[in-house]
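Hey,

Quick one before I head out. I ran the complex with nicotinamide-adenine-dinucleotide overnight. Inputs first:
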Amino acid sequence: MMSLAGVYIEGTWQHGPQLLEVINPSNEQLLAQVAGGDGAAVARATQAAQDAFAGWSATRSAERAALLRVIADGVEARRERLVFLQASNNGKPLAEAQMDVDDVIATFRYYAELADTLDAGQDSAVLLPSDAFVARLRREPCGVVGLIVPWNFPMVTTAWKLAPALAAGCCVVLKPSEVTPLAELELASIIAECGLPDGVFNLVCGTGIAVGAALAADPRLAKVSFTGSNAVGVQVMQRAAETVKGVSLELGGKSSMLVLEAADLELAVELACMGGFFNAGQMCSATSRVLVAETLYPDFIARLKARAEAIQVGDPFAGESEMGALVNRLQYQRVQKHIAAGMEAGARLLCGGTRPSTLPCGYFISPTVFTDVPLDSALWREEIFGPVLCVRSVVSEAEAVALANDSEFGLVASVVSADHQAAERVANALQAGLVWINAPQVIFPQTAWGGYKQSSIGRELGPWGLSAFQEIKHVVSAL
Ligand code: NAD
């Protein structure tokens, strides 16, 4: 069992006072103990970041780009170790853990490219309707930022915040999820060796109450960038409001896949399984409502049941596993509660709903599909964050769009149709930040991440992810 320091401040690893027990969800065994921090550690980390800010924000952007590339190279060099830790701590199959690491590398490389161009574009002329004045626009790093991330894609959600924050010239305090700190700590050790000045990157592991809340309240921060549940997002926003600091929020989803009349059924079934069962459904972007044209519905349901029942669930390190465990006992119990409540509300269980009989321990739940789900039930309306799909037949494109948009969330959506015009028309009508057409859930660093309504405030990735860490200043001079 590993025993790890969980605090990194001003270039030094420290053992904090809060002991976190890290469990392997595939076998329920203790994997590691992490000595995490508390409010005092957050205060020291924030001060270190503040002390480093003047120097770091004045560096040339090409210098910051070079350091981001060193981090990307370091992640690539330690790929195998990171995959092992991600699979062990999250219970996700090796292929999925590898995708996480690839995403981290791509994100650091992308923001290195953007950082390369930052100095040249830092000051740009502004056209004014007057000859008596000239003006320029400057983009400057916003200051010290707190980054709070969840457990479902550790390292990935971190990279989406950390790479643009460092590229912009901000200093950071990162708080990983207390449930999945292992790959994050390895990533932090790569960053610690990359040559960043001390104090630019700081990390405090710990619980949301002891560390996250202290970070959200710290008056020295210019901004908190948070990914997690809506309930905690609201608390972060409330704490940040006390000192009027900026917030970026990436929260929950209840997204739809729309299978239109002209859809290729085989593709639709494959995409429905990916959208619902990838990462054991623990995705804010899970397309957990599947809306199927009524002409295709009977065939679709039969094929989906067969495909879902054939999915190999099991240990991430077993080569044949296609779906792994839920992240911990709490999440396993939450998903079971949702399944039971769905049945009580009158939904029909098509398949799954229980632990696979071949897996006596570990937090495994079989791929689960419901039909006839009441539209006012929690199963239909709330984020389940587990391998649970609700499938429904629709009579028209208009009904599909109306049902998809009938949600307090608006993160993503997916459309399946061989009629490209129809798919594009439907994509335009959906209230979602990202729509895939006949595609799996591909995420590129160049396209924005974030959604409508209660799914998000702001956007990550792309130039929007960078500008989230910049202030805008205009300088106007009289001629
Ligand atoms: P969570 O909200 O419980 O925790 C997220 C982070 O906040 C953790 O690091 C946690 O320790 C911390 N935290 C908890 N209480 C806090 C408090 N009072 N103040 C400050 N920080 C606190 O979420 P989770 O269970 O780790 O992750 C699952 C949730 O994350 C889901 O709702 C999912 O939709 C969401 N999510 C969203 C996105 C997105 O991009 N929109 C991506 C991944 C996950």
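The chain has two domains: 2-251+455-478, 256-444.

Talk tomorrow,
K.
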